[in-house]
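thread: overnight batch results

M.L. [08:02]
morning all. the overnight job finished for the chain we discussed friday. pasting input first so we're all looking at the same thing
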Amino acid sequence: MKYIGVDYGDARVGIASSDFGGVIASAVCTVKVKGIEEASKKVAEKARELGGEAFVVGLPKTTEGKEEYRVARTRRFSELLQAESGLTVEFYDERFTSAEAVRYLTEGGVYGSKRKGVLDAVSAQIILQSYLDSKKRGV
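M.L. [08:03]
and the structure it wrote out:
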């Protein structure tokens, strides 16, 4: 199964894709959006281009694991995305993925405006890879 990983944000959405075996995740792109409806349409369109069969959307819980405003907004985006695409949406806890993405990019020597352009896509990749790894472990 080919999964599409999503790091949803109000202004930018990071997109990643797995191979058809659902083993390896790769960053694809960051899409600039204006609003939740545009975000769901653009992400659904990208998933069709990539041949996606299901979504894994990062759920932005607080560091304590609580679900606050951002989680509700992400769930609403996911409802729209599912309606727009017809694909199932699964959630994966995205706590600390942005920090991990920054560390990954820093180690790779990516800074400034270059980092801003790929940070969300790398975050989506980390979310998706973590999800795929958890499926392998049976978590």
